[in-house]
Amino acid sequence: MRAVLPNHEGIIDRNGVRLHYEIYGNGPQTILFIPTWMLVHSRSYKAQIPYFSDKYRCITWDPRGNGKSDRPTDPQGFGQGQYVGDALAILDATDTKSAIVFGYSQSGPTCAILAAYHADRVQAVVTVGTHTPLVPRFEHNSEASYNSVVKNPKGWEKYNRGYWKTNLPDFAEFFSDQIFIEPHSTKQREDVRHWSKGTTGEVLAASMAAPDAAQYPLDAAAYQRITCPMLAVHGRLDPIAPLAASQKVAELTGCDLLVFDQAGHAPHARYPVKFNLAVRDFLNKHLGTGHLNSAKGKVS
Amino acid sequence: MNKKRIKAPKRVLYLSSPIGLGHARRDLAIARELRTHFPDMQVDWLAQDPVTRFLMANNERVHPDSVRLANESAHIEAESGEHDLNAFMAIRNMDEILVKNFMVFQEAVEQQDYDLVIADEAWDVDHFWHEHPELKRTQVAWFTDFVGWVPIPENGAREAFLTTDYNAEMIGHVENNPDIRDRAIFVGNPDDIIPHSFGKDLPQMRDWVPQHYDFSGYIIGQHPDEFGSRAELRHKFGYQDGEKICIVTVGGSGVGSNLIRRILAAYPAAKSKIPELRMIVVTGPRLDPAMFNFPTGVEARAFVPNLDHHLAACDLALVQGGLTTSMELVAAGTPFLYFPLKNHFEQNFHVAQRLDRYNAGRKMIYDDCDPDNIAQAMVEELSNSKTFKPVESDGAERAAKMLVDLF
Q1: Interatomic CA distance for residues A232 and A105, integer angstroms
Q2: Cα of B69 vs its chain's centroid, Å
Q3: Of B294, B352, B276, nearest to B319 (Cα)?
Q4: Does the pLDDT at position A233 exceed 50?
């Protein structure tokens, strides 16, 4: 059973793609939980929303390609340009002037674009396991990797759009093991595998062939324009998005950087209570009052 | 860590698992015993339904943040099937509820100085304070009546792998962080530990548990010795000498409706074999009697105050297999049939082990039960003269003494 249910659900239509969103809680400030890569959907924030919705109005939606949203297969339907547009449209549809934006992995850059190019809509940024175009991906999950053709792929060779179309469940099993490299993570891995059943290899392949968001160059200058409070959280052992990505973001923005020494790609899901407390304290420090501890530092 | 407040009244934050009502009954007994040591002690209960109803009826103070808790009892009911509850998987699937409830707990201990947290099967507190020892804010006493997840053999290798992994994580937490549990109390005796291992390459439960727990003996809400004689109770409740009083009760959760229906189907056969039979069905706080078609002659009650007194007065009880009700029957010396939920490792292994040790109760397999064999078992248990081993009455007192020096 879920820990909390939404108090409002709705659907928006962006150029023929319907997106399903949910609102939890009714606090004076809003946290916008932006979906990540559509291998999973909005339930990937299940350890955050039940807690934060006690004090904040929390909005999330299912990404194009999974959950209760539509599943476009044209690459033009994907990419940061679309994701930023989705976020702005959800803010408008929910009468939200500005919000704390929360991004995980692929939606980390979405948050940075929003903060750099639509600063009036963003009060603060929290990212976890973010990518950035300024730091190369690992070779094993690079553009070259997913464009390669490999027969009978093993290990990271499964990060390959041809294989996604032929054996998505096996890829999801492999990839969930990479997201959660920590011992005793069977439940988190199962959740990812379960949520991955809501998408297809065609959707994932299209998403990775999406055009660049030319209107939103995410260069050093863009990051340096970000002036709102920002917290970047990263697992030191992350094999999917290098820690260097969050370090680079912190260097350019001056934001708080919190490193979970023993964590992989999803500290918010694997170590949720420590993560939630750190985010709570960060938000209290910058946007409210109340009990707080320093969010800066390391977590073992 | 908070400084000890030497002269101020002691403050306790008490967490009592809402999965079944048994924890609340023993926890209230422990709290009352602790108050004999610290008469001005203040206890805040961070609790949820149905525990809150029980506490408020006993004039206890429920912490105001309790309203923020996500309901674990409703989750367990949602996970159940026809007399079927995979208790391990149900608790495993409760992960997001446990995260939410831990956050509520953590904020409660951050915002208020407590001298002691008592966590009776509060899985979230025990797990997350071990995972992040730096979050610990005060002394904590951990209570449980079983240690170790056990796979159901029919469920195959995957479940065995998972229970082993969960046990391994728990063992690692405890062994690597001996300062988290300031007291770990097993509600029972060493013989109550089942003779199993925690899983492949892990220790035997009977070796490991005594190294990491103290034993309070069984803790009963109120021992039947204090109720008065069986004859006095029967007179008080209007149970006639010629009647064979049979009470059917399925506990405080809403999981027992199928068992009630199956027992009602056996009533005609039982009545023909036992003409003096008088059957009383107690549906409990979460099942509406209107859900059932009661045969003529069967009495239905939604709720019975002092049910434990009735269990001590009746001739036979038919129950689900939860620990608390079973042990109330053992203590009273009342014969009973118990029907463990399918796939419920605690009822099928841990509780069954304990009842065998007390030479008490007759285990019934729900899937194998038809009206005739339920009726026949009722006849046999009514005429059975076996003697149960006595249940200690000082468990709460012993447990409270184990907590005194934590203040």
Answers
A1: 11
A2: 20
A3: B352
A4: yes
**In degrees rounded to 5, what are phi and psi of residue B247?**
-105, 130
Closest CA to B21 of B92, B72, B61: B72
Q: State the complex-level ipTM.
A: 0.95
By the 8 A CB rule, do A184 and B95 touch? no
Bridge partner residues of B57 (DSSP)? none
Q: Where are the domains of chain A?
A: 8-138+211-299
Q: Which of B100, B131, B165 lies at the smallest CB-CB distance from A3? A: B100
Taken in order A230, A234, A240, A243, is the CA torsion positive or negative?
positive
At B65, list the tokens: 């943040």
CB under 8 Å to B299, separation ≥6 — which residues?
Answer: B278, B279, B280, B281
Cα–Cα distance measured from residue B128 to residue A51, given in angstroms and rounded to the nearest whole number: 15
- Cβ-in-10-Å burial (0-12, 13-18, 19+) of A246 comes to buried
Compute CA distances B210 → A77, A156, A190, B205, whole Å: 61, 45, 34, 8
Q: Tell me the chain B residues in contact with residue A274 when contact means C-beta distances shorter than 8 Å.
A: 131-132, 135
Question: Are B99 and A276 in contact (CB < 8 Å)?
Answer: yes
Q: Is B95 on the interface with A (CB under 8 A)?
A: yes
Which residues of chain A have a CB within 8 Å of the CB of B169?
183-184
Whether B67 contacts chain A with CB within 8 A: no
- HSE-CB for B341 with a 13 A CA cutoff: 28
Nearest residue of A to residue B169, measured between CA atoms: A184
Which chain A residues have a beta carbon less than 8 Å from that of B135? 273-274, 277
Mutate to test the interface with B, among A192, A261, A273 (most CBs of B within 10 A): A273
Measured at the alpha carbon of residue B291, what is the angle toward residues B288 and B297, in degrees to the nearest 5?
Answer: 95
Nearest CB to B162; choose among A186, A271, A291: A186
| B196: nearest Cα among B146, B121, B142 | B146
Question: How many CB atoms neighbour CB B40 within 10 A?
Answer: 8
The CATH number given to A8-138+211-299 is 3.40.50.1820
CA distance, residue B290 to nearest chain A CA (Å): 26
**Cα–Cα distance between B329 and B350 in angstroms, integer?**
17
Identify the structural domains of chain B with CATH numbers, from first to last: 11-220+394-404 (3.40.50.2000), 224-382 (3.40.50.2000)
Q: Got the DSSP string for B13-59?
A: EEEE--SSSHHHHHHHHHHHHHHHH-TT-EEEE---TTHHHHHHHTT
Other beta carbons within 10 angstroms of residue A118's beta carbon come to 16
Alpha helices by DSSP H, A54-211: 80-93, 107-117, 143-147, 161-166, 168-179, 186-196, 201-208
Element spanning B142, H or E: strand B139-144
* Closest CA of chain A from B106, distance in Å: 9
Residue-wise pLDDT tens digits, A93-120:
999 999 999 999 999 999 999 999 999 9
Per-residue pLDDT of chain B (407 residues; tens, 9 = 90+): 445 556 789 999 999 998 877 899 999 999 999 999 999 999 999 999 889 988 999 999 999 999 999 999 899 989 999 999 999 999 999 999 999 999 999 999 999 999 999 999 999 999 999 999 999 999 999 999 999 999 999 999 999 999 999 999 999 999 999 999 999 999 999 999 999 999 999 999 999 999 999 999 999 989 999 999 999 999 999 999 999 999 999 876 678 889 999 999 999 999 999 999 999 999 987 788 999 999 999 999 988 888 999 999 999 999 999 999 999 999 999 999 999 999 999 999 999 999 999 999 999 999 999 999 999 999 999 998 889 999 999 999 999 999 999 99
For A182, the closest chain B residue by CA position comes to: B169
